[in-house]
Amino acid sequence: MTGRAGQAPALLVAGTTSDAGKSVVAAGLCRWLARQGVRVAPFKAQNMSLNSVVTPDGAEIGRAQAMQAAAAGIEPSAAMNPVLLKPGGDRTSQVVVRGRPVGEADAVGYRAYRDRLREVAAESLAELRSEYDAVICEGAGSPAEINLRAGDIANMGLARAADLPVLVVGDIDRGGVFASMYGTLALLEPEDQALVTGFVVNKFRGAPELLEPGLEMVRGLTGRPVLGVLPWLDGLWLDVEDSLALSVDRGPAQAPVGGRSLRVAVVRLPRISNFTDIDALTVEPGVDVRFVTGAHELDDADLVVLPGSRATVSDLAWLRERGLDRAVAERARRGLPVLGICGGYQMLARRIDDEVESGAGSVDGLGLLPVGVRFAKEKTLGRPRGTAYGEDVVGYEIHHAVAEVDWAGASPGTAGGTEAPRPFLDGCRTGSVWGTTWHGAFENDAFRRAFLADVARVADRDFRPAPDTDFAEARASRLDALGDLVEDHMDTDAVWRLLEKGAPEGLPVIPPAGPPL
Fold first, then answer.
1. CA distances to 266, 339, 389, 390, 432 from 454, in Å
2. Pairwise CA distance, residues 395 & 386, whole Å
3. DSSP notation for 233-264
4. Where is the CobQ/CobB/MinD/ParA nucleotide binding domain (predicted)?
5. Does the annotation mark 137 as catalytic?
6. Under DSSP, is residue 308 helix (H, G, I), strand (E, B) or coil?
7. Under 8 Å between Cβ of 369 and 346
8. Cross-strand partners of 97
9. CA-to-CA distance for 253 and 241, rounded, in angstroms?
């Protein structure tokens, strides 16, 4: 497969909004191309997400790009997401470049990085185009963020720099899809409009014949076709990058193999990160997972999970404001299961010393594990291996905090007593409370089943995990479903032409409605 100028071909999947379906369409295109024998790689120049993963080369990138790499049948690398912004508050983000943190910046301070980041993005895309047969790029947010266009490196700024044809995805389930498609195009500069080659309607449910007149009108108004109408498909929630995509109930309900279901309540922290840790639980028959924000919602849970956080100290304060700290402590006193992962593990500690992430200094933790936490300037990135419950476990870790277990200490145990800690992965367990910094542990099938069986025992629930649930197989089947969406519902011949020839010349320009912007 050859593109123009001797480079491997590439195209950009943009969206009318965040969570319009860019990641899904990009992954579907990667899967479809891989099925055709094309060596394809995903790329997102700049990603703002708290869902990240560690690549085999030790880099931190957005989880969605790792998922797209899996769809392409390749290992993820730093080049696939060269710039990652991890919000730590409403105004500041950690800036991760080629998988390594380089500092914190607010919107104004970010401008100092902009020129260098543009170079890094261009170099990374060129690297992928030299190594693969094709590259599917994903935009960020919307290309019509006109207040940000001057510094854009992920949408039309990238498309202009690399001469990429652009597809714009719109979410019809939100309503107003035709207006958002037309408006997105109309707000772009003429040179940007020249690269927008077509639209994709996502999440359609209903009779296609009712939609057809609108598709024809879009073509007439913009001079560009709708190259696909992707139907609504349940169960495509794996590896989402944005907490906008979180629902109260996570994943499809499945009947238990035997006994009753196991109820898992995941606390939806304001700065929740790596909530994809929970995805593997949802593929287990009889495990009902929901995200909660109120103390009363923990009452009927068999397992409460405190997930990762990009802002441990402030999210801990949020727990206390809502009374969730007391509810979690009461569960531990009664011997009911609680699991903390990464930031959630840090919250379970006795003390947290943080001069790095929040600058808050020394803060009391929940005191449910005999652990002291201190934040280091250097970020730990790794793909550790170990054992738990006699099973092999592979995970990944992304954290500044260092948790030190007081193995001679004790914490509240079952029925109000005290209990010495026992090892659990890299963390510890006391009574019915577990803590670890490892993400992705539940993707290990045998470990997941053993852990859930122990939780059921501790919670006194008649629940038995399915003996043969395969998370990797479940993920692969969903990636195949994305490839099927592209193959069955998109004009793949037109996609081939865009990859091989780029944007056609002479696409009409929609004049601005008012004076020049």
1. 18, 12, 9, 13, 10
2. 9
3. -TT--TT-S-GGG--SEES-----SSB--EEE
4. 12-236
5. no
6. strand
7. no
8. 83, 100
9. 22
The dihedral built from the CA positions of residue 451, 452, 453 and 458, taken in this order, carries a sign that is positive
On average, the pLDDT of the chain sits at 91
Segment 251-278 shows an average pLDDT of: 79
Strand partners, 428: 423, 435
Per annotation, catalytic residue among 342, 399, 400, 428? 342
CA 61/CA 292 separation, integer angstroms: 27
Residues 6+ away with beta carbon under 8 Å from 427: 345, 369, 371, 403, 405, 434, 435, 436, 437, 438
3-state SS string for 118-171: HHHHHHHHHHHHHHCCEEEEECCCCCCCCCCHHHCCCCHHHHHHHCCCEEEEEE
Quick check: is 30 catalytic?
no
Q: Residue 123 half-sphere exposure, CB side, CA atoms within 13 Å?
A: 11
Domain architecture of the chain: domains with CATH: 8-237+476-501 (3.40.50.300), 258-466 (3.40.50.880)
> What's the confidence (pLDDT) of residue 253?
44
The answer, as to whether pTM is greater than 0.85, is yes
Residue 70's alpha-carbon distances to 31, 57, 241, 280, in angstroms, are 8, 16, 15, 16
Q: Above 50 in pLDDT, residue 248?
A: no
Question: pLDDT band at 244, cuts 50/70/90?
Answer: very low
pLDDT tens-digit profile of 54-97?
A: 999 899 999 999 999 999 999 999 999 999 999 887 678 899 99
Amino acid, single-letter form, for residue 355: E
Beta carbons within 10 angstroms of residue 208's beta carbon? 11
Query: CA-to-CA distance for 338 and 459, rounded, in angstroms?
Result: 10
